[in-house]
Structure formats: structure tokens, C-alpha cells
Write a structure and sequence with these properties.
Blueprint (H helix, E strand, L loop, with lengths): L6 H24 L4 H12 L4 E4 L6 H11 L4 E5 L7 H4 E7 L5 E7 L6 E5 L6 H4 L3 H6 L1 E4 L2 E4 L5 E6 L12 H4 L4 E4 L5 H11 L13 H13 L4 H13 L10 H4 E3 L3 H17 L7 H12 L4 E2 L1 H5 L4 H12 L1
Parallel strand pairs: 1-8, 1-9, 2-5, 5-8
Antiparallel strand pairs: 3-4, 6-7, 10-11
Length: 330
């Protein structure tokens, strides 16, 4: 069954496509040769979620987060995660104030999490306890300090960068926190031509400054538009079948139990449902297709699944299992 969009949605989509083309152009002036990474990060923000950027140092992950904050007109703050970072350094804390009359009272001092865009740099260099400080903020858009709830700004997004966990001095992120990232964006080395352009541009003495295209209110309106886009029943069934097939207990794939230690939960299907809508919108289409599902399956699922020791020993990684899932439902 195909759901027909109303005329207002079609008009809003046309306007959104023009705006998003300008956003991508501005970001592309600063971030060279990483079109897929830029698009997947934009998809995350337009879907209202958080992104985990994974790659070795020096691939412009932090630069991308800073550039998106400028282009999207978001108030941003950055936290450099280190082993000695404490939860209060991110969330804030209560301090004791004393008035001239001698009366004492506690006052809440907000931490850097109170921003529209929080850049969590090298998040896996902090201890799991500090990493977990972001759990409530990422899911509920609020933090609780000393029994009091404090609402975060709207919109609120976390762009976290992570070094490969094989590197020294890193801690794996808790599974519950990984699940709160809408997409895991793997940042690879640029092509030779892109690296050549990057090398010339960054050593010429002229620093490219991006222009603001949106603001927080306009971003939220685009996020609302995304949720109004229709999704055909066939795409819905494909998403559901793919996510459920990735769970060992369902045994949809013959050897899934031997390959997957734990599979994606319901947040995965919700994330994929939103992400494919955004990809269609950025491409100027009203409704997503199976191609959108296949293109975004890996960034949505790769951090929500864990391979078994046996699969690792055979050289089978999460992305290969996701590819099998795509073939299974395709």
C-alpha cells in the first residue's frame, strides 16, 4: 500500500530540498572528500538523533561537528573526554551560595551539556561511568541533579567522536549508550584526489569559514517535516524483517546464532524508519525506497549488534552480517 502525501507536504519538501542543498554546499566547502560522512551526519541531525563518528585521529571528525554547528546555526559546546573527566564536568553541579545575611542555599551551575549541539570529543577515552552520564540527556533531553530535573535546550544533539577501540587508552562504550546513537558513522581515509585538495587548501594560509544557513527553529521544522513523510507498507515490512532477522533467537538466517552474540532492539527499527525518510528528502523524493534501507542499514545497525568470538575468528564483521541481512530481505 502506498500512502499519498498531501499538497502541503509536497510544497514543504520542495523548500526543504533547496535549503538542504545549501547546507551540504556550505559544509562541503570546509569538509573535503567526505560526502558520505557529511550526508550520514546530516541525516542523523535531521532525524532528531545523535551521531557517533568513528575513525582514527586526523580525519576531520571534530571539524565536521564544528562546521555543522555553524551552518545549522546551533549553540554549541565541546567537551574533551579524558580519563579523569567526571560526570559533573559534563552535566553540572550544585554549589553552596551564602548571602550577605548569612543564609546559605544551593545553586545549580549548568555544565556544557546545556547546549543545542554538544561535541563529545574522543568519548571513549573517558571511563564508562563518565560516558554513562550522557544516557539520560540523550534519551530524555533532560538531566536530574540532586533530585531536580533540568530541561536541555531544543533542539539537542550529541555528535560524539570515537577512536577505534583497539587503540591504547580507550574504553568500549556501554551497550545502552551505543543504542542511543541514531547512526554510527564510520570515517574512512579520503581518496588520493580528496587528500590532495585537502593538503593544498589547509596549507595555503586562507581559512574557509562556512556561512549559517539554518537556525535551531528551522532545523526543528525540518525534523517535523521528516516525520510527516509517508512510508509505504513494503518499506515498513522490509525494515521490520531486517531488524528482527538480526536477532539470534529468531533464526531467520541459518547461522545467525553462530555469528551474532546480541542483536538490534526496537530502537534500531525506529532509527531506520526515520533515517530512510531523511535520505529520501535529501534526494528530493517524497517517500523512501528499499535502496534507502540498504544504504542506511549498516550505520543504523553496526553499533547495535555484536559478533561472536567464532565469527571474529573467521574474519566476519558486523558490516558483513548487515550485508547478509540486506540480501535476506531484498
Amino acid at each position: 500500500m502506498t500512502v499519498e502525501p498531501d499538497r502541503d507536504v509536497i510544497k514543504d519538501v520542495d523548500q526543504a530540498v533547496t535549503l538542504l542543498a545549501r547546507v551540504r554546499e556550505e559544509v562541503g566547502r570546509v569538509i573535503l572528500g567526505q560526502e558520505r560522512v557529511v550526508d550520514e551526519t546530516l541525516i542523523t541531525l535531521l532525524a532528531g538523533g545523535h551521531a557517533l563518528l568513528v575513525g582514527v585521529p586526523g580525519l576531520a571528525k571534530t571539524r565536521l561537528a564544528e562546521t555543522l554547528g555553524v551552518v545549522l546555526g546551533l549553540g554549541q559546546k565541546r567537551v574533551q573526554f579524558t580519563p579523569d573527566l567526571m560526570p559533573a564536568d559534563i552535566l553540572g553541579s550544585e554549589v553552596l551560595d551564602e548571602a550577605s545575611s548569612g543564609r546559605q542555599s544551593f545553586r545549580f551551575v549548568p555544565g556544557p551539556v546545556f547546549a543545542q549541539l554538544l561535541m563529545a570529543d574522543e568519548i571513549n577515552r573517558a571511563s564508562p561511568r563518565t560516558q554513562a552520564a550522557l544516557l539520560q540527556a540523550m534519551q530524555e533531553r533532560r538531566v536530574t541533579i540532586a533530585g531536580q530535573d533540568h530541561l536541555l535546550p531544543r533542539p539537542f544533539h550529541v555528535l560524539a567522536t570515537q577512536n577505534p577501540i583497539e587503540q591504547e587508552g580507550t574504553y568500549p562504550l556501554p551497550e545502552a549508550q551505543l543504542d542511543r546513537f541514531l547512526l554510527q558513522v564510520d570515517v574512512d581515509y579520503p581518496s588520493a584526489e580528496a587528500e590532495r585538495r585537502m593538503m593544498i587548501a589547509t596549507t595555503s594560509g586562507a581559512d574557509t569559514v562556512p556561512a549559517r544557513v539554518l537556525d535551531g527553529g528551522e532545523l526543528m521544522r525540518l525534523q517535523e517535516l521528516v516525520r510527516r513523510l509517508p512510508v509505504g507498507e513494503q518499506v515498513v515490512d522490509t525494515i521490520l524483517a531486517m531488524v528482527r532477522a538480526g536477532r539470534p533467537e529468531n533464526r531467520a538466517l541459518g547461522d545467525i546464532e553462530e555469528l551474532v552474540a546480541w542483536g538490534p532492539g526496537p530502537r534500531a527499527s525506529q532509527a531506520l524508519m526515520l533515517a530512510v525518510r531523511v535520505r529520501a528528502l535529501m534526494d528530493g523524493r517524497i517517500a523512501p525506497s528499499f535502496e534507502d534501507v540498504a544504504a542506511l542499514a549498516a550505520p543504523v545497525l553496526r553499533h547495535r549488534m555484536a559478533v561472536t568470538f567464532a565469527a571474529r575468528a573467521d574474519g566476519i564483521g558486523v558490516d558483513e552480517i548487515v550485508a547478509r541481512l540486506c540480501r535476506h530481505v531484498g
